User: Fold this.
Amino acid sequence: MTRNRDAILRLVGYALFCAAILVVPLFVDNGYLLNKFARYLVFGILSLALSLSWGYAGILNLGQAVGFGLGSYCMAMALKLRTIPIQTGAGGLPDFMVWNNVQALPWFWVPFHSYAFAIAAGMAVPAVVAFLIGWFVFPARVSGVYVAIITLAMLVVINLVIIDQQPYTGGFNGITDLTTLKLFGIEFDAYSDATYYLAAITLSLCLFLGLAFVNSKTGLILQAIRDDETRVWYFGYNVAAYQNFVFCLSAAIAGFAGMLYTLVMEFASPTFLAVPISLSIVIWCAVGGRASLVGAALGAIVVTGVQGSLSDTPAFLDTWMLIMGGLFIVIVLFLPNGLISLIDLALGKRRRGRAATAAASVVAIERSESSRRQSAAR
Amino acid sequence: MAGERILELQDIAVEFSGFKAVSGLNLGIDRGELRCLIGPNGAGKTTALDVICGKVKPSAGRITLKGQDVTRLPEYKLARRGVGRKFQVPSVFRQLSVRDNLEVAYCKHLGVFGNLLGFKRGAENDGLEKLAELVGLEEVLDQPAGYLSHGQTQWLEIALLLAQDSEVILLDEPTAGMTAQETMHTAKIFNALRGRHTLLVVEHDMAFVREISDVITVMHQGRVLAEGRAAEVQKDPAVREAYLGSGGIADA
Assistant:
């Protein structure tokens, strides 16, 4: 029955977290701060997505920012096409295309006139890219560190392609000078409550849907794959299909986070799918607790939050990176399961858990001893 | 032997970069049989199991399962057709609870999407708890498998195979590292299984083999040397020859 109690405690914990992030705008009446907090929440979604593939399925995706960046560009393209530009070519061509002597809107930009298409693409494009990578990687039984290397390489390649294709992607500058998103009569201005709520509600939905997912049988099988991949093949599961599924799901969520990020930042840039942010996601996940969705999200919020306030404080201007580095080392050394394991410690669960195990195995041993003695006597 | 042939190996050969681990192996097993596979070190016993479960592909020969050629099937498709495998090194999911381990092994639906909607699957749990009782793990159902003792881990893996409910179960040294008493308990489990499942057991412990086996197959240098009941096999001069220097079959 402790099983049910744990499950209820977890649900309560998740609900408290969601409530906490949802009430923030009631107390904060400062657009600049809200914008900053919304950014942290977007990183939380991104970190949660990695926790699904890394924490629950053992797939360390160092190219997690691929999905994030592609999602961000999809949203930026849609917004750019609705911007009333100062300099435009024939048919309202985006300004950077005019500067690059592009004569007509490229074919793959055309469907982004529709918000519905852009939002669908913001998740579908990352998922399809992930599927193609996964389709090569997982059936070939590539695992562990090799997946990490391949995904990192993929990230660098896509990043270079985007920078290189300046006439179509804006190159180094990315896609800037965007209009604000207006959907269902709501204007998602970067500094408004609406954008903050959008990020907070998305994160809450991701947390609860993610929790349902990891508690489904598919989620259980993914955890089994994390523990012993070979064993799972011999039960008749197509392990590669399971791995690819969670890989795509994670990319799609990252894509959605990317779209939100464009709304919050008001531009899309190749730095959104560069190596530094991609590796940061791994750190957020590790600090918060990679095998916990709320832990991973919290990790992102805490790390980026501390980072933000340290680097904003004049006293720490030169040393904030050093302090962050020290914090990571301390947490990884002393809390290998991340900050979220502090809650388990506080509840004394670990100690009780150990005592219970010891007691149970003593009982089991005694029982089997006595049954053996009986059978020997017979 | 009354039953039909469930598994048949014909002229199987396995090469590892030139080294012939198995060559010209012929083996037939009837439905419901409990067959023991013994032989000196390097005889190719584990390789034979690897070939049957699809871990290793033979360089020659043919495997038929229930009359169908399965020689080229990948391991997960073989598992779906009813071949289960226990490895020499016990492999269970250490971070998952014993109950979750059994839940994973209980695999009536194998697709990603079918399992997305499968939540705490109440009705199935009853059967799994009975299974845990059979192998004496009912007290530790909610403990992570990583906390189990070596013997318990072995039993858990056997229980996983039973949850999987394969028709043919391959076991590689299921009693390795067990005490004499634990071994006898395992023998009892196996005797309870015969008839319902077809078991092929690789084992070194002759006391255990004598306890459970109908027919023993002795392998040597990648092929079958002798086949028969324990007493017959032990008298066979060729078998004595093969075990020469290792103190005879009884100590093998």
Notes: The longest helix of chain B spans residues 150-164. The beta strands of chain B are 5-16, 19-30, 34-38, 60-65, 68-69, 83-86, 168-172, 198-202, 215-220, 223-228. The domain at 5-251 of chain B is CATH 3.40.50.300 (Rossmann fold).
